[in-house]
Specification:
This protein is of the alpha+beta class and 239 residues long. It has eight helices and six strands, in the order E-H-H-E-E-H-E-E-E-H-H-H-H-H. 21% of the residues are buried.
Length: 239
């Protein structure tokens, strides 16, 4: 929230072989249910952030828009053995089914075909067995570098979440040189901000994120880290 970021999806990995036939599918019933529940929570969260309208009609319109924005939610399935990843959106019907508890909570969710609590009409026939493929909408993935992404092929943090020594040195150098542009360029990295958040107070973390957010949105002229915050950053990085 401090950086103006919102959830746009979730990713899961699997290690078992899900390509045993020509019509293989990397998403099972349990994944459809988990993705739907996360999307429902995201829609509720977005509605809760809707700005108050001058009238009830305007308020409802704002909430409806936030609900639609929350439904823009992607499911990424990654084969952990080779790293291959596929993207899907869940259909509105499947999300509604999960919301109404239509899926039976059985071991059947650990496979492609799942059992529903009530009969459905599929291809003109009534059935309680649902193929997960009917819940999915194929989604293309495009190459993209986010506003708060680390430079390509540059490691920012260690496995324990702490900053790499090389990145610490780069930030300290920018602090010592008083090069505001270089300092903000080093700090405009989600992983760096996350690592620093552990050591900074809540107010300092909010102040840092607000400054970096302005910089990332193009307000480079006049945007600078306060001297008191620079001192605290230096103490954290030297510690």
């Amino acid at each position: 929230d401090r950086l103006g970021l919102v959830p746009v999806g979730w990713i899961f990995s699997y290690t078992e072989d899900r390509s045993q036939d020509d019509d293989a599918l990397p998403v099972f019933g349990a994944d459809v249910r988990t993705g739907s529940m996360l999307q429902i929570d995201n829609m509720k969260r977005r509605v809760s952030t809707a700005q108050p309208g001058a009238t009830k009609q305007q308020q409802r319109k704002e909430e409806d828009q936030q609900r639609l924005d929350g439904a823009k939610f992607i499911t990424l399935a990654m084969d952990a053995k080779v790293g291959a990843t596929e993207a899907f959106q869940l259909s509105d019907v499947s999300v509604q089914m999960v919301a109404e508890g239509m899926f039976k909570d059985t071991d059947g969710l650990k496979q492609r075909h799942v059992e529903a609590r009530h009969e459905m009409v599929i291809d003109g026939q009534e059935s309680t067995k649902l193929d997960s493929v009917l819940c999915l909408i194929n989604t293309a993935m495009l190459s993209h570098t986010g506003t708060f992404s680390s430079p390509a092929k540059v490691s920012t943090v260690k496995k324990n979440g702490g900053l790499m020594a090389k990145r610490k040195k780069a930030i300290v150098t920018a602090l010592e040189s008083k090069d505001e542009k270089e300092l903000l360029a080093q700090l405009c990295d989600f992983n760096v901000l996350l690592a620093l958040d552990v050591s900074l107070s809540d107010d300092d973390s909010k102040a840092l994120c607000a400054t970096v957010k302005k910089w990332a949105r193009g307000q480079k002229s006049g945007t600078a880290v306060s001297e008191s915050l620079k001192m605290k950053l230096r103490n954290v990085l030297d510690g």
